Amino acid sequence: xxxxxxxxxxxxxxxxxxxxxxxxxxxxxxxxxxxxxxxxxxxxxxxxxxxxxxxxxxxxxxxxxxxxxxxxxxxxxxxxxxxxxxxxxxxxxxxxxxxxxxxxxxxxxxxxxxxxxxxxxxxxxxxxxxxxxxxxxxxxxxxxxxxxxxxxxxxxxxxxxxxxxxxxxxxxxxxxxxxxxxxxxxxxxxxxxxxxxxxxxxxxxxxxxxxxxxxxxxxxxxxxxxxxxxxxxxxxxxxxxxxxxxxxxxxxxxxxxxxxxxxxxxxxxxxxxxxxxxxxxxxxxxxxxxxxxxxxxxxxxxxxxx
Length: 306
Fold this sequence. Notes:
Layout: E1 2-8, H1 14-27, E2 31-38, H2 42-48, E3 57-62, H3 68-78, E4 83-87, E5 91-93, H4 98-102, E6 112-114, E7 117-118, H5 129-139, H6 143-146, E8 158-162, H7 163-169, H8 181-191, E9 197-198, E10 203-205, H9 211-229, H10 234-240, H11 242-252, H12 256-274, H13 281-296
Parallel strand pairs: 1-2, 1-4, 2-3, 6-9, 7-10
Antiparallel strand pairs: 4-8, 5-10, 6-8
């Protein structure tokens, strides 16, 4: 009935796996849990090796690091049940009803259901504050809000999909870096006339990146946007991604160079704020916009950030 799929990257997910395994057992459904770990990640292999002894849990190891899109496509290809529940490894359920809340949607073949993301109220250390602040502001939304723009609010963090539907779409493996694979998946579903349903069944997001790592991932996500602009109609992307709406405005008004001229000398001050205890999410958006403008005038070999 249900395949629970969890790619694992340098994180101890044993508590999550055991909790969900117990929940699935208690519902009485047919299920499997498939975990994917890179063989080079010795620590994660050690953490999770005993889980393979549990009935219904299978661990796969790949010789190289599988990017997020490749990892999810691989696990889907190994799944045997009609519905796939994709979860990020750095998460934690609110209670023991997480699996049960998804089961009513496992009767449909053309279904995509997103449970949502939540953050614990205790603030992290200053060195990780930016990712937490962004998550609380931008990601922790009730289903009623997410359903206003269901496809645009699709997230890979915690979602259910029929296997047949997933295999007809799959994740875009051209995106090698972090970021926006969920954006494109949501757009592909929209093109097929599939409406995403959001429900209030969130997981806590526990693996809060350091400011330095999150800013690095942010730049990777912006690079992915540059790739997507070459593959998808601009208007389709602009309607779903606010950053591209601002970028499009700069392009139409021929103000890209002017904005870049302001961004370059102010970038250092932006980074000081974003690494502080009181980061401005407005500055984060300006930082992304400036970086996207910068990519337009740089060769691929120069697409780095100090």
